[in-house]
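Reproducibility note. Readers wishing to regenerate the assembly model reported in the main text can use the exact inputs given here. Chain order matters: entities are listed in the order in which they were concatenated for prediction.
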Amino acid sequence: MSSNTSTLENLKSIAKECRIDILNMLEKAASGHPGGSLSAIDIIVALFFSEMKMDPKNPFWEDRDRFILSKGHGVPALYAVLSQKGVIPKEELSTLRQINSRIQGHPDRAMLPFVEASTGSLGQGLSIAQGIAMGLKLQKKEQKVFCLLGDGETQEGQIWETAMSAPKFKLNNLIVFLDNNNGQIDGHVEEVMDLNPIAEKWRAFNWAVQEIDGHNFEEILGALAKAKQEKEKPSFIWAKTVKGKGVSFMENNIGWHGVAPNKEQLEKAINEIRGAKS
Amino acid sequence: MSDKATRDSFGEVIKQLGSEFKNIVVLDADLSVSTKSVTFAKAFPDRFFQMGIAEQNMIGTAAGLSFTGFVPFACSFGAFLAGRYETIRVSVGYSKANVKLVGTHSGLGIGDDGYTQMGLEDLNVLRSIPGMTLLNPADDVTTRAAVRWAATNEGPVYLRLTRQKLPALHKSESDFKVGKGIVLKEGKGLALFGTASTVVECLKASEALQDKTPWVVDFHTIKPIDRELIKRVASNSKVIITVEDHQVIGGLGTAVAEVLAEEGCSSKLIRLGVQDCYGESGDPKALYDKYGFSAKAVVEKANHALKNIL
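Running the prediction on these inputs yields the following structure tokens for the assembly.
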């Protein structure tokens, strides 16, 4: 599936801006999770700018597609995208993690539109996404539910309860991405608690499994197009990603899981992102 | 009116409500025959979801269903629901999800199956969830009213039901108002507060304690607790005895203690229930005696307390 070149260039350029917004937010807050926000951002940009039906001015439009960020700590990526969409004023992003702000450290659905679930206690978002997908099916609606999982998150048992139940309910309107950046707080995922073989496990649970590079927009959009053709199975898109993607000194460095950049590091990172060939 | 388990009342009324409200859905985790959600499952198979033995996934799924406008009732034994505290805390409580948790098999009253199946700490842990209403009805009509209230009011609810049969105590569904205790006997000097299966124990005890003119109150709502009624009763009662088939930590007794202390009431409080220990298998009536919250135990405690105070 080839996508329009200008679409791909546009997505790359939006993702660049989002990366810069993420790092600015985190530097200002002096805390948060850069590694997993930067690994997830390309998938979230692709969803919000090329895939999902949504109207930024009408957040509770019944026919909108839904996005559930199950790995709640990656929420700066979602805030950056919602800001680019005009849902969150850009200046409000700098209130991340501050008192009296809507821009909570982890997503709170009661505070912000398009934050469809309150997550951060890992393993819960997929069940919620499943419930929404079941509700939409019951209402005979066509919308899709997209859910983004962290790889470390799939060590939670609740994930596997949903892995078992979603195929039973034939939720072909549920499309799940795994942000497989292979890093979690205590080390590499493979060392902390190995998930392999990933594709075989989800296939054995009866999901339609695809494997992509989670930073390649053509592959992300291609996988989405294919997932939407599924007649019965829910889709599991195994996205191989790089923790801290786009900032060389953060890439694949577990130390950047939950540490914010200082001013100097921020400047270096932004220069690198701006200078990168898109 | 014959005795009836409140889980049976639930099974009947949820089916009625299912035809009345098309947005009601029911989920169960392989206990639909025991929770009685099976009546709904048979009548409305499209709106019933069998989730298998996976309670946390059931609870999270119920939250998601509520976000598309459905009113989900998620059913299991109370012990197994409350055990999924973290999912309830975030996916239901913090998320302000309009989910109704139905926990049957409350307390020692289940009898033979023993401790692991008994909901004995469910009120305690769920009372700490901000915004959650806790209902623990004592008979058929108030259970019907409680289910109807849960179905038609926004917000998370925990409905605690019994396996064992209970006698009819109340006349009509309109006796039930969430957050308002039902005074069965006005009294003076002594007060007996029951909830669910222990209201009838309080009533029986009150017969033997007739000369002590006890209040008898049904606290079907544990949260929000009826503060005004507790103050009113305390104003003329030297001794208040709470009776519950639940740990004395965190249930009715604790809720009443908080009000008495905060309001500066001088009544002596005695909390009967499971005294910070585990339950066991046995005949329910014998268990109520052994663990000290049968009508007989209430009478003994009341006489002892009043003698020592005077």
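We highlight two features of this model. Chain A is about 40% helix and 10% strand. Residues 5-275 of chain A form a domain with the Rossmann fold fold (CATH 3.40.50.970).
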